[in-house]
Specification:
The protein is mainly alpha-helical. Helix content is 91%, strand content 0%.
Amino acid sequence: MAQARRSAVELYERGSRALCCLDARLRTLTAEPEEGAATAEYAVVLVAATSFAAVLMAVLKSDGIKTLLTGLVKKALNVG
């Protein structure tokens, strides 16, 4: 009988600790539910912006674009 009582008390204490941890976890999730999602979204946007910048730099460094931009600047300076 004493063994059963000790087992019941131990089971109650374990359940109480687990419930307390679950309550704390739920409170944390409801307080800031999308904190990790926002960080992931920023990372994706940062990678996309960096990729776009790399492609833009490659295009601007090409000979055809350099010639076009140089022609535009010369024409603008000659007009004034």
